[in-house]
Design brief:
Length: 153
């Protein structure tokens, strides 16, 4: 797969607008753990290798365990995630897949049990923001860096 072009260079104003949303998400008061969770899950759903790579590394850098990171893709089958995280993951999936799901009442009812209305708006804005990044990166085939391979012992 070859990159199509660098969208940030092609339209710096567009990049700045999306980056401003990103800056807001980082400072809006949501728990970093929850931001990592929704970014990683949405990026997995959207098949965005660039963003999955980025958000795995960011989550790891912020001290989240390898198991917590690795099992995000199979969260329904793992007891690792607490009720708030599970509600957040379900909401992330419904919002990311809005064209297929219409964002049903069940995920909304569940997220309301764990987050305030203000938090739900911030979470939904964060989900929308990562979906914008995913769409830009997938559409223009952004390439994640290739880490050096570790030598087998």
């Amino acid at each position: 797969m070859q990159p199509r072009f660098d969208f940030a260079k092609a339209s710096p104003e567009s990049y700045k607008a999306v980056f401003a949303l990103e800056q807001y998400i980082r400072s809006c008061g949501l728990e970093p753990r929850h931001i990592h969770l929704l970014k990683l899950r949405a990026s997995q759903i959207n098949g965005c290798a660039y963003c999955v790579d980025t958000h795995v590394k960011e989550a790891r850098h912020d001290g989240l365990s390898e198991q917590w990171i690795n099992l995000v893709c199979a969260w329904r089958e793992s007891p690792l995630y607490d009720a708030r995280e599970r509600a957040l993951l379900e909401w992330t999936e419904a919002v990311t897949n809005v064209a297929q799901t219409g964002v049903p009442d069940a995920p909304f009812a569940e997220i309301r049990k764990h987050f305030s209305e203000e938090e739900i708006v911030k979470i939904t804005t964060a989900i929308g923001t990562i979906n914008v990044w995913n769409r830009l990166s997938v559409s223009f085939r952004s390439q994640h860096p290739i880490d050096e391979r570790e030598q087998a012992a």
